[in-house]
């Protein structure tokens, strides 16, 4: 990261966002629509919900899916004009896969 590796930064930011989304608790729309304004919770933290705790397996699955998505898109970018973008996506996927390989390779 100190070398300002743009591929690593981009891949890690996107993957952290994907993990954050995976922790989110689904909101029941029927619950939101049926509530009158005066019955809605008020105050700081009144609408906060506990986030889901992800298992190690789920985290690995999310990271693996992020890497696979990058490799899939890179494979679809066959035109010479997209060569730089495809190379960047492959580099991002390599960064993510290094984290899955083990602590000695990251």
* Count of β-strands: 0
Q: Report on the biggest sheet.
A: none
Helix content: 55-70%
| Strand content bin | under 5%
Radius of gyration: 19 Å
What gross morphology would you assign? elongated
Order of helices and strands: HHHH
Q: What distance separates the N and C termini?
A: 12 Å
Counted by DSSP, the helix tally is 4
Mean pLDDT: 83
Low-confidence stretches: none
Structural class: mainly alpha
Protein topology:
Layout: H1 6-23, H2 29-33, H3 56-76, H4 83-101
Structure in words:
By secondary structure, the protein is mainly α. It is built from four helices and no strands. The N and C termini lie close together (12 Å). The model has no long low-confidence stretch (mean pLDDT 83).
Describe the structure concisely.
With 106 residues, the protein is an all-alpha fold.
Key terms for this structure?
106 residues, mainly alpha, 59% helix, 0% strand
